[in-house]
Design a protein that fits this description.
The structure holds two protein chains of two kinds. The model of chain A has no long low-confidence stretch (mean pLDDT 92). Chain A is mostly helical. By secondary structure, chain B is mostly helical. The longest helix of chain B has 24 residues. The chains are: A mainly alpha, B mainly alpha. Chains A and B meet through helix 4, helix 5, helix 6, helix 8 and helix 9 of A and helix 1, helix 3, helix 4, helix 5 and helix 7 of B.
Chain lengths: 248, 117
């Protein structure tokens, strides 16, 4: 039986939101495309650790994140470049550069692993931000689910758009795509498509927390199930992006 | 920001979207805009007392369901911004063109420069 989340939350969480968060937690704990469920949970846990990392705090304050030499605070079995990726995405993502990513690749993290890490970290951040914002503790990470990574790399993925290869759905096979689709033409929907399962899972979260992807470009669309207007939704989204210094 | 402006163009009234990036002060002109912006600021910040106060104000002014829906949007963009920033995806051509007139003015353009070597 699937666990019901937010039953005791101080605010009434919509059922579709609680169900989508349950799916996200199950996804975090299950084998992905390149990592096992246990490894994905270590990445998720490290995302939480990163918020308390003193070296990250010093880096964040530095004029350049490369100006300092030090070690991240971590106590798990993940490799150093993996920990560097997780911590930088959590604490200083607006200053990431292509040359930083090249150095990560040189240390053995593949482009597809990098994309899967992004998916796991950002899913965790989203769940944790929601919990804190409604006034509850972070949801407990589940136990890992046994299973092997699928290791499916879409053959049609190309370096045609961003720092990482992305997929054009018209050129990919159904097996490669799984549940992933490009429901709208936003580039961000393609950003994680090198790992299609991760892209599909992350944007399922987005569809429930923000807006159905098929409706995003219709700026007059009002989601009936929401208690705030489209203008209020876009005000919040724009404000958070400005605070995060996100150019996109 | 492009979608915010697009939506507001369909409404009557005066709106100042410069408030969103801090390029200007005051009230954006959207109902409950000030209380929602403070909620977003508190959620992205690390002051628990401020967040508790901001949450209580949203509940009082707009309601509990609105507070949860707002939290969902905040949670989404605190994550999706990182997807965009860590993959280096470019702006779509249409978005580049439709926001050209205010990106510099509102200070958004400087965010892109952070990713330069």
């Amino acid at each position: 039986m699937e666990q019901k989340y937010y039953a005791n939350a101080p605010l009434p969480v919509r059922d579709d939101l609680a169900e989508c968060h349950a799916r996200a937690l199950k996804r975090l704990s299950s084998a992905g495309t390149w990592y096992t469920g246990a490894e994905r949970l270590m990445i998720a846990a490290e995302s939480r650790n990163a918020k308390k990392c003193l070296y990250c705090a010093e880096q964040k304050e530095a004029l350049s994140p490369n100006a300092l030499k030090g070690e991240h605070d971590s106590s798990n079995e993940l490799s150093k470049p993996t920990i560097e990726v997780i911590h930088r995405i959590v604490t200083d993502t607006s200053r990431l550069t292509p040359s930083w990513l090249e150095k990560i690749y040189e240390q053995g993290v593949t482009d597809a692993e990098y994309v899967e890490i992004i998916g796991v970290v950002t899913t965790t951040i989203s769940l944790d931000t929601f919990a804190r914002t409604i006034g509850i503790e972070d949801l407990t990470l589940p136990l890992p689910v046994e299973g092997e990574p699928s290791r499916i790399r879409p053959a049609s993925a190309t370096n045609n758009m961003s720092w990482v290869p992305t997929v054009d759905v018209s050129k990919a096979t159904p097996e490669e795509l799984g549940l992933y689709d490009q429901v709208n033409k936003n580039n961000v929907r393609r950003a994680l498509s090198l790992v299609t399962a991760e892209a599909a899972g992350f944007f399922n979260l987005v569809d429930h927390q923000y807006l159905d992807g098929a409706q995003i470009h219709n700026v007059e669309y009002e989601a009936n199930a929401r208690a705030i207007s489209r203008a209020q939704i876009e005000l919040l989204s724009s404000r958070v992006s400005a605070l995060n210094q996100c150019y996109y | 920001m492009a979608r915010l402006r697009g939506n507001l163009q369909g409404h009557e009234g005066e709106f100042d979207i410069g408030v969103v990036t801090g390029a200007s002060d005051g009230d954006i002109g959207i109902p409950n805009g000030t209380v929602l912006m403070e909620f977003a600021d508190a959620a992205i910040g690390d002051d628990e007392d401020r967040l508790n106060m901001a949450r209580a104000n949203v509940v009082t002014e707009i309601g509990e369901k609105a507070c949860v829906d707002a939290a969902g949007v905040i949670a989404t963009f605190n994550a999706i911004d990182r997807v965009a920033d860590s993959t280096g995806i470019p702006l779509e051509d249409w978005k580049e063109e439709s926001t050209e007139d205010f990106r510099e003015e509102l200070g958004i353009e400087k965010f892109r420069e952070l990713h330069l070597e």
